Amino acid sequence: MSNLFALLTVLLAAAPLFSAEGKTYHRLAVKAAEVERTLAGGKDIYLVLDLGERTLSLKAKGVVLRSWMLSRAGTWGGPIALDPVTLNKKLSFAQPKRPEIEPGDTENEGAADLQVLEVIDMPRRYSLIADTNIRLYIRARSRGISAALDFINRISRKIFLFPVLTIAAAASKTPFRAVEITLSDADEARALYWSAYQGIKMIVLPDFVRKI
User: Fold this and answer.
1) Average pLDDT of 123-149?
2) N or C: which end of the chain has fewer CB within 10 A?
3) CA–CA separation, 66 vs 58, rounded Å?
4) Is the CA virtual torsion 136, 141, 145, 151 positive or negative?
5) What is the reported pTM?
6) Cα–Cα distance, 135 to 177 (Å, whole number)
7) Could you tell me the CA-to-CA distances from 174 to 1, 117, 198 in Å, in that order?
């Protein structure tokens, strides 16, 4: 009797996989694993944005080097394909500048090296642009007046900017898609800006991939 009960439990648990929807979810999960395995086999670090788990992870060889928990994540446009994309641009109102040292200026050379290595003066609001017309809008969680302004800015994007970009991209084979991400504080946002260098690969896992 116990063996029969165990068999029924297994069959009930596996039942969703036999439906059309379950097979689709399973196929996407398998592809997501294959894509990440390919990136993990390379020598470069990469990003994994998991909308289901609400995490953004910086990885190398499959090992998590740094992880960010997303306070909020919203999407615009159609589904994002489970293929690696390349981040080729970072946009912010005030682009951070590294110090310029004249040759032979030994007095400031040490201080400049520290500034290059540290996460300082990085923006807390910015956009990461991928090569497939995907934009990530990143901001740190705010309070008071700043929170109200962020809310107005977010609504304005959805009412004005996103529709315009969607129409402009309608004729192309790469429709406009956006992901709005809110991180817990300014330090988290600055660290992500520093880590997401130009040319880094990223994969985006939709929220239903984990629900299998």
Assistant:
1) 89
2) N
3) 5
4) positive
5) 0.76
6) 7
7) 56, 36, 20
